[in-house]
Amino acid sequence: MFNDIENQLKEITNKAEFFSTFEKILQSCGVSKYAYVYTPLSLDQVSDIYIFGNYDHAWVGIYKGEKYYRIDPVMLLSSRTPFPFFWKDIPMNIKGKSDIFEMAQDYGIGKGYSIPMHDPGFSFGSLHLSVDRNDTNFEMRISQNCLLLRLLSIMVHSYFSQDVKQYNSICLSSREKECLFWVSQGKTYWETAIILGVTERTIKFHMSNMAKKLNVANAKQLIAKALAMNLLAEV
């Protein structure tokens, strides 16, 4: 079964399709939410991290904007160990009095399991799987699928690492960023056109162009990937 899944993912060349398939496999394992996080430097040195997944966009924005990753017990332990762990097992000397778990619950992130993947130096990736805090069978499902989840973590790390290497070569114009910002705020193309004083056709053109640059299929995927790549930060 593992070989079939590995070959299936390896044959996918479109990243949007890859992550769609990846998410379906996670759902078959009983995982409703996930986030792949890439940290290019040590947590105390990095100015931003890359997050890709289906966590609530509002929470991702708050998390990155407030730099919670520097004090998040999950990230702190992920930076120190190569071994997967349940969030409930994080030692108290790391967990401390952090309020992050309580805040995350407001966005449907309750119980969790993390799989760190360390590169040479201080950079590392980590796959974080979570469900609602009332899910009583989460640990059992993770234990039953731990080998498959480990394989998936390695594959997503490989895929996303390729994207990270390309970040510096991806450039959005100021107008493209403005379009994407307003659409990410829930504005329609027509409303965005009114705000920016252009035609709706122009907005569609910019959105289509950005989708090609980031190799995604639709506006939802574009917003998620741009947020992960911090391309909205300068708007």
Automatic annotation (TrEMBL):
Database matches in Gene3D superfamilies: Transcription factor LuxR-like, autoinducer-binding domain, Winged helix-like DNA-binding domain superfamily/Winged helix DNA-binding domain
Q: Which SUPFAM superfamilies match?
A: C-terminal effector domain of the bipartite response regulators (SSF46894), Pheromone-binding domain of LuxR-like quorum-sensing transcription factors (SSF75516)
**The HTH luxR-type domain, residue ranges:** 165-230
**From what superkingdom does this record's organism come?**
Bacteria
Q: InterPro entries, from UniProt? A: Sig_transdc_resp-reg_C-effctor, TF_LuxR_autoind-bd_dom, TF_LuxR_autoind-bd_dom_sf, Tscrpt_reg_LuxR_C, WH-like_DNA-bd_sf
GO MF term set: DNA binding
CDD domains xref list: LuxR_C_like
Keywords (A to Z) from UniProt: DNA-binding, Transcription, Transcription regulation
One GO biological process term is: regulation of DNA-templated transcription
PANTHER family noted in UniProt: DNA-BINDING TRANSCRIPTIONAL ACTIVATOR DEVR_DOSR
Protein name in the entry: LuxR family transcriptional regulator
Q: Which organism is it from?
A: Billgrantia kenyensis
